[in-house]
Design a protein that fits this description.
2-enoyl-CoA Hydratase, Chain A, domain 1; 19 strands; about 400 residues; about 30% helix; 6-stranded mixed β-sheet; alpha+beta; Pdz3 Domain; single chain; 6-stranded antiparallel β-sheet
Length: about 400
């Protein structure tokens, strides 16, 4: 037998291919002519196309020109705000660069930390040899204006973003100090955040102890903390106060490694999320000697990664906790970078201490936090005497 000749079929396909190509190009420019199931598969999700169409309309038809990138930033910011989650954020490209600098231990600004105040920003700490220190700004001052703009009623993040800027640029700060208002022009600089501060002191029984304060859980913080602790132990410290007051947290992995300085083995924190399997982060090993007593000093601004460490040391009976209830954050975030250079910092799960406690208030609401073993409050009206630290020293003296 002889096979049938195939030449007519080949010719037919050759003629059909250009026609299909032309049809495909036309439909690509007119997706509304496609049947709905086919259109959704070939063109993409209808919701995404709706958003894209809306952006095109505003960008092309609004009475004044608005950059499309600004519209994308506004749209993404609105999506995150609709979650009503104070812990989730959308970062523009510039904000994400600032965020990376901060978690890396550096930022561009004037060299101070400050928290939200009804009048503006209440200065907590002024870094040594910083532009803010050279301008005479002190802890307890209130920054009430930036470049002539009042900070009253603004969020802490919005106010801080007004102060930040490129190194070498200038910012005019209006400062309220002891009831007197003054204005200072400060030149911004790249500032290295002092992550760890420590000093030696003596307990009531004469033994030396180390007071070691950790400011944030930025990248590499555990290494700086361990170096400071080892140095003080070599200098004769027989106990440690780990001061986490005002520490708003940072990287979860840094929290695991900081807790591992004190906890030799076993669980540090467990996480659960809707889109990821449960996991337990374990101690990394290499902890300091178990016979070195430890007290963790906390307050209402001790949050997130700080609470992970505090909860782990409390649950594992490695340290006594002194101070006030911590912030009460029981969720964690993950950062996803976006094609426009920005990023989403989204709440993706909850974390639990080794005993199974979640320190938040069910979901993203603020909870009761870690309850201290020994309550203690520092009196802000006695700046030269730290009442909470005095209590921590007494508790440490009793731990042997």
């Amino acid at each position: 037998m002889h096979p049938r000749p195939r030449q007519p079929l080949v010719v037919a396909l050759g003629l059909l291919a250009p026609a299909l190509l032309v049809l495909g190009i036309w439909l690509g420019g007119h997706p509304e002519r496609l049947p709905t199931p086919v259109r959704d598969v070939l063109v993409g999700d209808s919701d995404a196309r709706t958003v894209d169409r809306a952006l095109d309309e505003v960008h092309g038809q609004y009475y004044r020109p608005i950059p499309r990138g600004a519209l994308v930033d506004a749209a993404l910011g609105g999506i995150v705000r609709s979650l009503h989650d104070r812990f989730s954020s959308y970062f523009t490209a510039r904000q994400y660069r600032d965020f990376q600098d901060t978690t890396g231990g550096q930022f561009s600004g004037v060299g101070l930390t400050a928290r939200e105040d009804p009048r503006g920003l209440l200065v907590d700490e002024v870094f040594d040899d910083s532009p803010a220190q050279r301008a005479g700004i002190r802890s307890g001052d209130v920054i009430v204006g930036v470049n002539g703009r009042s900070l009253r009623g603004k969020s802490g993040n919005a106010s801080r973003n007004l102060i930040k800027g490129r190194p070498g640029t200038r910012v005019r700060l209006t400062i309220l100090s002891h009831g007197r208002r003054r204005t200072k022009t400060v030149q911004r600089a790249t500032v290295s955040v002092p992550v760890v501060a420590s000093h030696l002191g003596r307990l009531s029984d004469g033994r030396r102890y180390a007071d070691v304060a950790l400011a944030q859980f930025s990248s590499g913080a555990h290494g700086e903390l361990r170096q400071a602790i080892d140095q003080r132990l070599k200098q004769g410290a027989k106990g440690l106060v780990l001061d986490l007051r005002g520490n708003g947290g940072g990287l979860v992995e840094e929290a695991r490694l900081v807790a591992s300085i004190f906890v030799p083995e076993g669980p540090i924190v467990s996480t659960r999320g809707r889109a990821q399997p449960p996991r337990t982060l374990m101690a990394a090993g290499g902890a300091i000697a178990k016979d070195v007593p430890v007290v963790v000093l906390v307050d209402g601004e001790t949050a997130s990664a700080s609470e992970i460490v505090t909860g782990a040391l409390q649950d594992r009976h490695r340290a006594a906790v002194v101070g006030t209830h911590t912030f009460g954050k029981g969720v964690f975030q993950e950062v996803t970078t976006l094609p426009n250079g920005g990023a989403l910092d989204l709440t993706v799960g909850q974390y639990f201490t080794p005993s199974g406690r979640n320190l938040g208030g069910a979901g993203v609401r603020r909870g009761s936090g870690v309850k201290p073993d020994v309550p203690a409050v520092d009196d802000p009206h006695t700046p030269r005497y730290d009442e909470a630290l005095a209590v921590a020293k007494r508790v440490l003296a009793r731990r042997r």
